[in-house]
Records
---
Amino acid sequence: MPPRKNNEKGEREGARLEREALLRAIIETSPDGLITIDETGHIQSFNPAAARMFGYRAEEVIGRNVNCLMPSPDRERHDGYLARYLRTGERRIIGIGRKVNAQRRDGTVFPLELAVAEVVAGGHRLFAGFLHDISARRDAEQRMHELHSELLHVSRLSEMGEMASELAHELNQPLTAVINYMQACRRLLADRAAADAGRVGELIDKAIGQADRAGQIIQHLRRFIARGETDHSAEEISSVVEEAAQLALIGASERGIKAVFDLARGLPPVLIDRIQIQQVIINLVRNAVDALSGGGGDMTIRTALAGTDRVEIQVRDTGPGLDKEVAERLFQPFVTTKPGGIGIGLSICRTIVEAHDGKLWASDNPGGGTVFHLSLPLAASD
């Protein structure tokens, strides 16, 4: 009988050791940091992920106050937070979790998602902190915010430029007519012998001069807009399209819209102004979102090689399609299908695309809806 009890005891001990080994393996291989501290705030364990995250070796921090991993003012306040919890039991982070700032060995401050659990081991109360580095997420959010601001800025500049160009064209003709009319008036007055004819002629000369000056200003503005320089660089078009489309699709799923990406990877680079082309993509995708907003539907965003020297981007929707009359004038200024639109978005897009030696056009989607096509030349091999 005693041997059997010894066997059972040995099995339980073996099972316990196996569980402990498994737990250690999980902690050691966890991609997230795990730190345990005692009631005084001193570090008891520091797993490899935490070591990579903070730049310390475990033996360098075990036994030190955990506030050495915090920037000011949290460093100075942490002991007070812990003492208050031990005194009152009021939870402000334990079992709740929150975003906090931490400090690496080199002094770099970075954001963490921190969850804290309270455990009792060997009659001692410990606190386990589970740490997830969200630096990459924060940087991506910041980049998206900056990109959004840049795109909005480019949109405003483009709209002003397009409007100014159109006004230059429209106003140049009446200004020319004003000059002609005033010159005719001057000739008529020259034939009269009235005493004040000289004074009238002088005023008309001034009017002609001012009208001519206005015409020159408009012409200079138009030439400036027409040859505005852009910042071109070699870009992989699928990443450009994906980044812009993701921004344009914000809120689309709540409208019942399903977007599918069919992006060819490894395409040869194109020489473009990234921000301007992304403005075009955003405009096309938002137009598709608006077309599908009535009852939902599908959208496909595609990139592919077109021939040997171009890439093509397509934005397909299954919306109601384009009215034939509107389709014929779709890219002209002030033509719109939107009740509140002013009709310059697609005109701006075509201006941007043509400045890149590209082409922009629309066609009917065979399954119903509209397809916008954007074709761009590949960058020269040199």
---
Amino acid sequence: MLSCRRYTRKLFPTALILWLGLARPATSGSDGESQVELRCKIVADRAESGYKLWKVNLRSASGEPLRDAVAAPGGTVRFKKLQPGIYLVCLSGDKNRSRCQSVDLVPPPDRKEQVFEKSFELPPQITNRVDAHGVSASRLGVPDKARREMLRSEEAQLRGDSEGAVRYLERAVEIYSKYTEALNNLGTHYHRAGNYTRSIEYFTKVTQLDPRFFAGWVNLGGSLLAAGKFESALEANQKAVQLRPDEALANSQMGMNYFYLRRFPEAKTYFTKAVTLDPYSAKSPQLFLAHIAFAERRPDEAENQIRQYLELHPNSPQAPGLRQTLQNLAATAALKSQENSQSSR
């Protein structure tokens, strides 16, 4: 949910940042008139049995909920009139199973409208999630009145009424001070507003109330990173990975944490796993890996990572700069080869 690329500038020269695009937003729209449509087909494997409905939630790249729908396996959900960008599609349902997957919905520059058809597999059976079983006492004790305020907040957020959403969350917390979901959502609001001191306070309280609540840990780690508290963030991000080792967001954020600490071997491990879990991620793990390869003087590997990114995001705003980077690398390699040839004569 949380993006912290703003700290890349502390680690690398400006020219390199512009080449790789990490200092720019991961989501974008070509202009205000461009619109795209996403058609999500829900795919189940043969092991699935019975008729079950799944919630399909469309979110921004930062995790903010935008649209909701319901579908059965084999069905297709349509999200119309979207601005071009990278989105998250999250499926949730049977036995608390869930999965989020990034999608790139940026059409070529010469196209104003485009329909993207994507298939989404149902979440796998839960096997290695520490938080898969059991519910904390604080979450079990939420009174119905507080839950209704939480529901009103979610409805307001889907309408685009952020101020109303916060008011309902505050009411929910007034009714029940240990409402971890409401506290977590308030922390998310303050993070997006850039008030990291407040968001850290809320997320810290969430993790204290429910140490097995994944969202609290991953959000706390993200806010600490955004505040530049890299050492403090390490424990929170490690806890998030322990709770959900196969969660793309947790692995991306863990990679960022090590990246900012200049612990590149560890960062590479987590970014590589993040690419496997969610290659279209708006966190751009391929570009972080390219940064590391440049820092370690391995231009061939950096070039490979950039090419992988461009295959997935050919129309991103970073694409022109990245293609220029590839041309510069090719020119440098050709010049070096020519110099080596001349020196060997």
